[in-house]
Amino acid sequence: MEDILFLQTEYFHKQMRFKAKFNKNPKAFKDNFSTQSSAYATHRPQYPDKLFSYLVGECRERKLAWDAGSGNGQAAQKLALHFDRVYATDASSAQIKNAVPLANINYAVANEQAPALKRHSVDLITVAQALHWFDLDVFYAEAERVLKRYGVIACWTYKTFSINPEIDREIDWLYSEYLGSYWDAERRLVETGYRTLSFPFRELRAPRFEMKASWNFENMLGMLNSWSAVAHYKKREGSDPIAENMERLNKAWGDPQEMKEVSWNLAIRAGRLH
After folding, report:
1. Among 17, 100, 196, 246, which lies 20 to 30 A Cα-Cα from 178?
2. Which residues are 17's β-sheet partners?
3. Rounded to whole angstroms, how far apart are CA atoms 73 and 32?
4. Which residues does 6 contact at the CB level (< 8 Å), separation at least 6?
């Protein structure tokens, strides 16, 4: 990996220094979602409007937002309601192909960097359920480069969903026991709500946010099939872990057509450059 350019800047609150590395190939991209990009786009939960209202309220201007690790553009589409322009990047071209096109969103295939963005041009950077895949040194340096002086950065994640005690027990078993060894090591960062990650920004006390949905049994299966561990299992074992446990899951759910309320707690790290 060749370093092309180094930038140094001093953070006022921790006296930290970044080495901003513009690498042709930062951290190797783990393409965990291209094979199920359609399922990801269809079955992943929608982020709450209150989250974006909060983030917009922390911004001094609303000209440009960068959604890094955008996937199929779920967060980008919400940002487009508030900002003049949104630049949305993801390393998976399949994910970008499944993104909903909007007039003020520019989608691009890219890792942790956004070379198309000018220095100090971005009002808000968001990373939704993707920070654990990033090379943090590279990404934080790029964030420092593109954010305006009082720009805001917000990164959030969520773990498994909750429905009711019986279903939750089965999902926890599937997640931890049956698929436990098939999760990438980065998943541990999600489990801690990103609290173990470095975050060299002036941190904001973000309120708590929750995602909600209403599902039938098929909806839940769609979500499970979007898990990266399920894709890993299929590749290694040559079989479908969801199909292998269909009887258990169906028994816990009951009537497949019955709609049930689903929730996820969001863990968010938000801060300012200055």
Report:
1. 196
2. 10
3. 16
4. 19, 20, 21
Instruction: Report the distance separating Cα 216 and Cα 196, nearest Å.
Output: 35
pTM as predicted? 0.83
Tokens of 185: 């090591």
- The length of the chain, given as a count of residues: 274
Q: Looking at domain 8-164+185-212+263-272, which CATH architecture does it have?
A: 3-Layer(aba) Sandwich (3.40)
Identify each DSSP E strand in the chain by its residue range.
8-10, 17-19, 64-68, 85-90, 105-109, 122-128, 147-158, 202-204, 209-215, 260-272
Q: Collapsing DSSP states into helix, strand and coil, what is residue 38?
A: helix
- Report the chain's C-alpha Rg in angstroms: 19
What's the CA dihedral at 199, 201, 204, 207 to 10 degrees? Answer: -30
- For the stretch 204-251, pLDDT in tens is 999 999 999 999 999 999 999 999 999 999 999 999 999 999 999 999
pLDDT, one tens digit per residue, over 89-145 is 999 999 899 899 999 999 999 989 999 999 999 999 999 999 999 999 999 999 999
C-alpha–C-alpha distance, residues 101 and 104, integer Å: 9
CB atoms within 10 A of CB 185: 7
